[in-house]
């Protein structure tokens, strides 16, 4: 269930990318897409009834009742990268706005 | 090796060709005149004309003008030297059809060269018309002869003539072809209605416009010899040559006079008409003839 | 000395020549000339016994009689052209890189003719192609080199396909071995044959592939056009000879039905070559540019060569070889003469010239021999080859191709006379009064070329004996025979010396009458009978434009094949435009759309 | 001999990239020294597996140095360093991004872990985005970014699915598991392929390449057009030969995509009338061909094709960038005759172009020859015929362009006075040297290709189907 939900979030992001021409909207769509993906990957490691893979005083050893920790670490990296991408994208948005005075790609292309 | 004797025969052949054909063309003039209800000149008028022309001073347009004419005459004489007539075969074994055609073409080319060198555009137009016409009549003619060569398995003219003595004339095997060949011959001789390239009123005698005096005389000689070669070829290839000289000459005169009579009663075609005529009728007939001939005599294997 | 070192030293001389010519441009032409003449000497002296030299990997040489014949031909063309272009002042010719490209093209052609295996042949073939492409590119105009390269590439890719098909199927690239192995397997053999012959036809400019010739010959530097027309286009004939000798159609299609004793495929290809003759002749007749006229005539003459090769009889193959040589000599002469004319007058349009024979008589004589040889009139070499080809056509009973050959030779009278009449005869234009006779170098090269045309035309026996040797080396069971001075045909003999003798006797008689008669007075060219018109300007008094108008009018609607290629090119252009429009939009959303669509399609396809 | 750890090739540029921030003045020095040291490191690499952090495989990250990686690294680092030598004022701000790009590209080639690959992919993309922003076409760069982001999302999605199925991210382990039970992995493989297809410029996904490369300068062109494209293709070569197992249907569908790219790219290049456009579309077409070979079990040929195209494209984009800069545009008409006044550049450009078009005497020919030969050995005639038709189109537009650049414009006598690099230019001799060395290398490998071919054989010995690789070499003819 979670998989499908997160995938639909991903598709929603792609839908946004396909239909929107406004740069900021596209960046938002990108983020939605990435979030969907990250959720999806997290759900991959999820196992019913298992607990978070954190060593604590309560669970001092890595026993078999942890959920798979690897997807979570992947997602962690992925989130960081997503932030980087978004930053670059926003920087572009600023530059484009300075150059063209608007953020609608259709208008910019039309003007060129 | 070729004996001196055969070279002598060959030279004799060329001389005979000129004498006979010049005489005959005098007769031709006479006949034409009679058809047109004139008296006409005496039969040896052409000899008189040639000697008179040769003794007249003339103008020249430069050395190419001279050279072309010499090539024309030399080509004609050289061709006549190879021409077999009845049993007389001057250069035995070398009277090859293709060779004779191409050597004759050299004479034609020489004439064209000389005409072009005159600098007169009328001459160039005349030559162009002549060469255009040349494609029209040479093409069916040569294809027919190639069919014959394939049939008789020899390209020697005397050989083809000799085989016809045994197997019957080619005219019986390819009647349509002979009709085409005769039309072509008529064109080659420059008789009406195919004398567009000479048309005095249009292009002022075309290639000959600048020729006078000894040039016209030499051209005349070359022309008569060329006519001899053309008619002899026709007789040899299609009418079975001749068992005797008399038979050959009889056929020769018949063909020539038939052509003259036809020429005397026809009008001249315009150049477009000539071209269209040649590319329709003779070529069409030739294709038909070749198909028929291959069906009847040559095997499609 | 061996073949490998000959080729390597030619390549190195080319590179050295480039650097020397950069320092002193005038030396470039001398280097090209000296190198090609040295190669000529070497190949002549070495004969076909010249060793191939050590193998350098795949690059292995083996001198065969056929290869030697072709090598001699091409070196003759290159060296005479080298001598002829020494004095050229043309800008293009003075480019340092010209020397290099010229020698590269020569060396690569020699590599093709002596290659031991197909790969080496192909490598040298391609080097010849691109070096000549760049040499053409040095000329003026942009269409010629591109269409030359495009068509050549088409040909060489066909060849490459065939080579690799043989190599992958039979594990050999050795020329003879590969072809004879292919002979055992009818399926690939047909493909290999068609592709190989196709590539030869491209090079020779046979009909559907001829479109490169007119622009390339016109736009190539004037000094390069002779080498291209006379030499490089003959590369195609070489492979055609090899393929038809070792992989004869009768060998792999023997059982199928035949027309006149020829396998149906051969007959079809012969018909194609015939069509090329007819088409080339018709197009040559209606050209207004002398170089284009000669280009179309080359397309026509390629047809004779292919017909001779495909008939495969001893006489026809010999005829094809002789015709190759005759055409090479004649076109080289003709293009060299045109180069002289273009250098002096700046044009090769026939109606802009006229009367040049009076300014350059010796050049005119050389041109005359070339034209007579092109038409195939005795006593030139072109006559011998046409005789051989017509003989074999007649004896085989191939009437349709024979008609084409006949049409080609009679039609060639029309365009040959046209080029003579409008360029050299007729009225001399006042602006051409100051024209000079060609320089001694050009005259020397023209003398060699027309001397060869006429000498071999009068005394062809030695040449025919060598073609017999070539035929024997190609494994043909029968070879063309000579007896003394005459060539023994199937249904008749040819003694060229006798013809020349008869002609000379005629000449003596004609001369005697001519000189016995009163001397004539020389008059100016304008002093002619004008039928009452008054025309004072030589320009107007020259018949040069639309020369054979009544004849041309019959076929003015003849479709042009280059339109097919133009359509192909514009089709590719349209496809490119479509691709750009669909897939290369600058809008990110379009990219996202495509990614989603393709993903859905692929996954859908996978799930199904 | 020294035995250096391959992690140096990644770590060194990264460290330099961050230390550079403190030494702005000698940033260029950092760049040049860093890239040169990298070449040095690559030269002393030994083949083998290098574990990071001491985990045994399949756990932990490993770096894998085999012949394939080694020679890819060598070419990559040499080309990269050469580009760094040419760095001008303009690029000084990009020092860090360049060094990061170098680190990421090295990592892409070396890594033996699929997720690690994703990380490097993203780093490389972000570095590229920053580099690309230097040409000031931000909306084109934005297009690149969106495409790249979707691509990497798809890659990660596919990777997630694979992880779910097989439970590993290690490449070697993944291959073992996949070979044992390939069913069910097709969707993931398709997703990963599409993700990478964006980077290797396969056709419906490559609109970003057109936008970026159309305006590329002498710096971005070789970087994005040649180096990035090449390295991504090497990654594809690694993944789709060594790791993923595809069934015939998937292979066919993906091949169809590459075929469309080949045909469409050649057509688009044929239609173009600008130097850089021609180069970029022909690059798209070449990418299609390379991917086609890799997918269909000819990785060795694909490998040398990638390397030879990379070198040729590098030279051409480099010179095209300079030409466009000097002439203020790169339409054929504007540049007619430009090589007349720049014969050395012209020579290098011509050699690279002829090699790309596959003409003999140049390396490209040897590659094309072996390519077609191997295709024909498996009795496929249609594919070679199609590839040859594409080469025909390619040869025509390539020669048309080169001839146009050599030809004097009508009426011009002295040659066009566009100097590609004026005598005052700082990097004049560097450009001369680099373009000449690379083009001479193309000739050298064209004349004596046997070493290159034997390396390819060592790198990708047997094909995916276990067929032995047969090569036509100059030395001995056909051999296995």
Structure description:
The complex is a heterotetramer of chains A (112), B (301), C (608) and D (480). With 301 residues, chain B is mainly alpha-helical. Helix content of chain B is 73%, strand content 1%. Chain B has twelve helices and one strand. Chain C has 608 residues and is mostly helical. Chain C has 24 helices and six strands. In chain C, the strands form two sheets. Chain C has a three-stranded antiparallel beta sheet with strand order 3-4-5, covered by helices on one side. In chain C, strand 4 and strand 5 form a beta hairpin. Chain D folds into two domains: 136 residues, no CATH class; 343 residues, no CATH class. In chain D, the strands form two sheets. A two-stranded antiparallel ribbon of chain D has the order 1-2. In chain D, strand 3 and strand 4 form a beta hairpin. Chain D is 69% helix and 3% strand. Chain D starts with 6 loop residues before the first helix and ends with a strand. Chains in contact: A-C, A-D, B-C, C-D. At the B-C interface, helix 1, strand 1, helix 3, helix 4 and helix 5 of B face strand 1, helix 16, helix 17, helix 18 and strand 5 of C.
Identify the notable features of this structure and list them briefly.
heterotetramer, A: 112 residues, mainly alpha, Helix Hairpins, 4 helices, B: 301 residues, 12 helices
Record field, number of beta strands of chain C: 6
Roughly what fraction of the amino acids of chain B lie in strands?
under 5%
Radius of gyration of chain B: 19 Å
Structural class of chain C: mainly alpha
Distance between the termini of chain B: 40 Å
Structural class of chain B: mainly alpha
**Major sheet size, sense and barrel closure of chain B:** none
Report the radius of gyration of chain C as a whole number of Å. Answer: 26 Å
Short précis:
The complex is a heterotetramer of chains A (112), B (301), C (608) and D (480). Chain A has 112 residues and is mainly α. Helices cover 71% and strands 0% of the residues of chain A.
Topology at a glance:
The complex is a heterotetramer of chains A (112), B (301), C (608) and D (480).
Chain A: H1 2-19, H2 23-44, H3 69-100, H4 105-111
Helix pairs in contact in A: 1-2, 2-3
Chain B: H1 4-35, H2 45-54, E1 59-60, H3 63-82, H4 97-117, H5 121-152, H6 157-167, H7 170-173, H8 175-188, H9 200-203, H10 214-238, H11 245-265, H12 271-296
Chain D: H1 7-19, H2 27-43, E1 48-51, E2 62-65, H3 67-85, H4 95-110, H5 114-132, H6 138-166, H7 171-180, H8 186-199, H9 207-214, H10 220-243, H11 248-271, H12 275-295, H13 299-327, H14 332-335, H15 343-357, H16 363-377, H17 382-406, H18 428-447, H19 450-459, E3 471-473, E4 477-479
């Amino acid at each position: 269930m979670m998989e499908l939900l997160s995938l639909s979030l991903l598709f929603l992001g792609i839908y946004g990318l396909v239909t929107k021409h406004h740069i900021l909207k596209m960046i938002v769509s990108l983020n939605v897409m990435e979030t969907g993906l990250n959720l999806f990957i997290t759900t991959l490691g999820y196992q019913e009834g298992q607990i978070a893979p954190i060593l604590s005083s309560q669970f001092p050893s890595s026993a078999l009742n942890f959920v798979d920790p690897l997807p979570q670490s992947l997602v962690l990296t992925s989130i960081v990268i997503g932030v980087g991408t978004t930053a670059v994208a926003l920087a572009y948005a600023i530059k484009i706005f300075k150059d063209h005075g608007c953020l609608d790609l259709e208008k910019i292309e039309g003007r060129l | 090796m070729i004996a001196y004797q055969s070279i002598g025969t060959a030279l004799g052949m060329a001389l005979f060709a000129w004498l006979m054909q010049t005489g005959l063309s005098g007769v031709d003039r006479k006949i034409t005149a009679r058809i047109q209800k004139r008296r006409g000149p005496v039969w040896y008028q052409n000899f008189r004309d040639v000697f008179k022309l040769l003794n007249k001073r003339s103008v020249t347009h430069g050395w190419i003008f001279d050279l072309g004419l010499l090539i024309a005459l030399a080509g004609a004489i050289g061709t006549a030297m190879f021409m077999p007539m009845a049993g007389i075969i001057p250069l035995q074994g070398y009277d090859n059809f293709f060779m004779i055609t191409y050597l004759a073409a050299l004479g034609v080319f020489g004439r064209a060269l000389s005409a072009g060198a005159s600098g007169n555009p009328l001459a160039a137009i005349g030559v162009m018309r002549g060469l255009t016409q040349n494609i029209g009549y040479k093409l069916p003619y040569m294809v027919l002869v190639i069919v014959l060569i394939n049939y008789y398995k020899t390209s020697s003219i005397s050989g083809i003539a000799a085989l016809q003595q045994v197997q019957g004339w080619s005219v019986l095997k390819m009647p349509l072809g002979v009709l085409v060949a005769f039309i072509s011959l008529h064109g080659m001789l420059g008789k009406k209605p195919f004398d567009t390239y000479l048309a005095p009123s249009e292009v002022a005698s075309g290639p000959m416009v600048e020729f006078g005096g000894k040039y016209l005389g030499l051209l005349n000689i070359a022309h008569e010899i060329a006519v001899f070669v053309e008619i002899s070829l026709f007789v040899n290839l299609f009418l079975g040559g001749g068992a005797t000289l008399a038979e050959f000459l009889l056929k020769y005169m018949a063909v020539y006079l038939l052509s003259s009579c036809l020429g005397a009663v026809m009008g001249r075609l315009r150049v477009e008409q000539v071209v269209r005529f040649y590319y329709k009728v003779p070529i069409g007939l030739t294709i038909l003839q070749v198909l028929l001939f291959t069906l009847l005599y040559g095997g499609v294997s | 000395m061996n073949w490998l070192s000959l080729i390597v030293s030619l390549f190195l001389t080319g590179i050295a020549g480039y650097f020397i010519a950069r320092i002193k441009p005038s030396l470039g032409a001398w280097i090209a000339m000296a190198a090609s003449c040295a190669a000529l000497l070497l190949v002549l002296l070495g004969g076909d016994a010249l060793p191939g030299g050590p193998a350098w990997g795949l690059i292995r040489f083996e001198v065969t009689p056929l290869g030697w014949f072709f090598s001699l031909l091409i070196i003759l063309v290159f060296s005479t052209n080298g001598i002829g272009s020494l004095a050229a002042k043309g800008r293009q010719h003075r480019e340092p890189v010209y020397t290099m490209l010229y020698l590269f093209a020569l060396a690569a052609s020699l590599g093709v003719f002596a290659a031991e295996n197909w790969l080496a042949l192909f490598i040298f073939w391609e080097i010849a192609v691109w070096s000549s492409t760049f040499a053409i590119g040095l000329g003026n105009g942009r269409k010629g080199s591109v269409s030359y390269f495009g068509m050549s590439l088409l040909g060489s890719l066909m060849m490459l396909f065939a080579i690799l098909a043989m190599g992958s199927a039979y594990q050999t690239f050795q020329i003879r071995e590969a072809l004879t192995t292919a002979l055992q397997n009818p399926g690939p053999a047909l493909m290999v044959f068609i592709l190989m012959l196709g590539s030869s036809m491209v090079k020779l400019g046979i009909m559907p592939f001829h479109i490169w010739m007119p622009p390339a010959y016109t736009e190539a530097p004037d000094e390069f056009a002779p080498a291209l027309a006379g030499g490089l286009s003959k590369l195609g004939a070489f492979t055609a000879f090899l393929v038809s000798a070792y992989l004869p159609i009768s060998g792999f299609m023997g059982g199928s039905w035949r027309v006149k004793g020829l396998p149906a495929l051969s007959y079809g290809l012969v018909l194609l070559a015939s069509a090329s003759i007819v088409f080339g002749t018709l197009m040559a007749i209606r050209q207004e540019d002398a170089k284009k006229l000669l280009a179309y005539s080359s397309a026509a003459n390629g047809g004779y060569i292919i017909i001779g090769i495909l008939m495969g009889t001893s006489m026809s193959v010999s005829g094809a070889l002789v015709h190759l040589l005759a055409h090479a000599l004649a076109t080289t002469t003709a293009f060299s003469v045109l180069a002289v004319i273009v250098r002096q007058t700046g044009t090769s349009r026939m109606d802009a010239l006229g009367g040049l024979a009076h300014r350059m008589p010796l050049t005119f004589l050389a041109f005359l021999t070339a034209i007579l040889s092109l038409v195939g009139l005795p006593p030139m070499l072109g006559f011998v080859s046409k005789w051989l080809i017509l003989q074999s056509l007649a004896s085989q009973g191939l009437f349709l191709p024979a008609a084409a050959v006949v049409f080609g030779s009679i039609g060639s009278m029309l365009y040959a006379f046209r080029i003579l009449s409008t360029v050299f005869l007729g009225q001399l234009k006042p602006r051409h009064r100051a024209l000079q006779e060609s320089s001694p170098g050009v005259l020397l090269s023209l003398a060699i070329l027309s001397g060869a045309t006429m000498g071999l035309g009068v005394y062809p026996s030695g040449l025919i004996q060598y073609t017999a040797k070539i035929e024997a080396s190609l494994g043909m069971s029968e070879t063309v025979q000579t007896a003394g001075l005459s060539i023994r045909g199937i249904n008749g003999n040819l003694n060229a010396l006798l013809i020349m003798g008869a002609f000379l006797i005629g000449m003596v008689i004609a001369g005697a009458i001519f000189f016995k008669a009163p001397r004539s007075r020389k008059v100016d060219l304008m002093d002619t009978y004008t039928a009452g018109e008054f025309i004072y300007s030589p320009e107007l008094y020259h018949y040069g434009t639309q020369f054979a108008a009544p004849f041309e009018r019959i076929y003015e609607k003849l479709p042009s094949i280059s339109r097919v290629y133009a359509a192909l090119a514009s089709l590719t252009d349209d496809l490119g435009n479509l691709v750009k429009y669909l897939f290369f939009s600058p809008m990110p959303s379009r990219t996202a759309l495509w990614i989603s669509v393709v993903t859905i399609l692929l996954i859908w396809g996978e799930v199904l | 001999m020294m035995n250096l750890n391959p992690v140096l090739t990644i770590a060194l540029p990264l460290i330099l990239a961050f230390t550079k921030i403190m030494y702005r003045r000698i940033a260029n020095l950092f760049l040049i020294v860093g890239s040169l040291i990298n070449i040095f490191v690559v030269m002393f690499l030994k083949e083998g597996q290098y574990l990071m952090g001491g985990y045994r495989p399949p756990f932990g990250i490993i770096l894998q140095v085999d012949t394939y990686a080694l020679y890819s690294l060598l070419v990559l680092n040499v080309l990269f360093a050469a580009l760094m030598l040419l760095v001008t004022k303009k690029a000084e701000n990009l020092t860090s991004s360049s060094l990061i790009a170098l680190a990421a590209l090295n990592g892409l080639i070396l890594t033996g872990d699929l997720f690690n690959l994703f990380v490097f992919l993203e780093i490389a993309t972000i570095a590229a985005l920053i580099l690309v922003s230097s040409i000031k076409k931000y909306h084109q760069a934005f297009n690149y970014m969106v495409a790249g982001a979707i691509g990497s999302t798809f890659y990660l999605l596919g990777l997630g699915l694979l992880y779910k199925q097989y439970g590993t991210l290690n490449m070697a382990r993944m291959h073992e598991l996949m070979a044992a039970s390939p069913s069910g992995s097709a969707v993931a493989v398709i997703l990963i392929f599409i993700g990478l297809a964006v980077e290797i410029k396969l056709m419906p996904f490559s609109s970003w390449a057109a936008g970026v490369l159309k305006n590329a300068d002498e710096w971005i062109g070789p970087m994005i057009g040649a180096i990035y494209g090449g390295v991504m293709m090497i990654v594809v070569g690694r993944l789709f030969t060594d790791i993923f197992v595809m069934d015939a249907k998937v292979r066919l569908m993906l091949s169809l995509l590459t075929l469309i790219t080949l045909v469409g790219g050649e057509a688009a290049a044929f239609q173009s009338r600008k130097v850089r456009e021609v180069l970029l579309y022909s690059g798209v077409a070449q990418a299609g061909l390379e991917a086609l070979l890799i997918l269909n079990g000819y990785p060795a040929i694909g490998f040398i094709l990638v390397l030879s195209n990379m070198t040729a494209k590098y030279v051409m984009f480099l010179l095209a960038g300079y030409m466009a800069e000097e002439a203020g545009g790169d339409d054929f008409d504007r540049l007619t005759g430009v090589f007349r006044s720049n014969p050395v550049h012209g020579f290098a450009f011509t050699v690279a172009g002829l090699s790309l078009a596959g003409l003999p005497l140049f390396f490209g020919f040897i590659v094309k020859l072996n390519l077609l030969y191997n295709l024909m050995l498996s009795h496929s005639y249609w594919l070679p015929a199609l590839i040859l038709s594409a080469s025909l189109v390619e040869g025509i537009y390539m020669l048309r362009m080169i001839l146009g650049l050599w030809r004097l414009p009508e009426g011009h006598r002295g040659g066009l006075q566009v100097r590609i690099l004026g005598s005052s230019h700082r990097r004049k001799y560097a450009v001369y040297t680099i373009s000449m060395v690379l083009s001479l290398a193309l000739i050298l490998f064209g004349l004596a290709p046997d070493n290159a071919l034997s390396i390819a054989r060592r790198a990708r010995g047997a094909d995916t189907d276990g067929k032995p690789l047969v090569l036509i070499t100059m030395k001995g003819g056909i051999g296995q």
